[in-house]
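Dear support,

We are seeing what looks like truncated structure output for some complexes. This example has two components. We would appreciate it if you could run it in full and send us the complete token output so we can diff it against ours.
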Amino acid sequence: QKEVEQNSGPLSVPEGAIASLNCTYSDRGSQSFFWYRQYSGKSPELIMSIYSNGDKEDGRFTAQLNKASQYVSLLIRDSQPSDSATYLCAGETGGFKTIFGAGTRLFVKA
Amino acid sequence: EAEVAQSPRYKITEKSQAVAFWCDPISGHATLYWYRQILGQGPELLVQFQDESVVDDSQLPKDRFSAERLKGVDSTLKIQPAELGDSAMYLCASSLAGRSYNEQFFGPGTRLTVL
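Here is the complete output from our reference environment:
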């Protein structure tokens, strides 16, 4: 069973701090990884995609991928209360099927 | 900005009734997905279409669920008969093609409540 694992949280950080969200995956054939943000009662919104080992930065967000350790992370710098949401990690298996983790709830305290 | 459209946004039905959900993907997106998301869990793929063809329906409960994408554009997901355990958010997503590096974009979802 191919899996994507996330700590359910909640992760609580003060406003202005760096929030670090982590994800591990079981399928070594996975090549593509995605982070989605989901507000309560809403649908997932794509934040970042990453395909190569290393870091990828987009504004306040940095995605990190380590294929040897089967580990993906998302850093949110200068966290804002509006970043409070559930963050879903997703990996695309070798068969082009996307597997989602259960998500990590993030609370940013003003 | 191009978006995935879904209707209805909310549906309340009684068990044993039939329900149907509709999805219109982003124009030009060949791949369409239906997911089910239970509160506190990640989305679970029910069915994936490439144009009008089903490429993955391994998790679709085929005794009660059906999906079609007749002209390779919009799609309908049907449940008949609905059961209490079907209460969930039903999400439609689309992407340019079902290949690697495949960014999916979600519609607003349909919240189904079965009484």
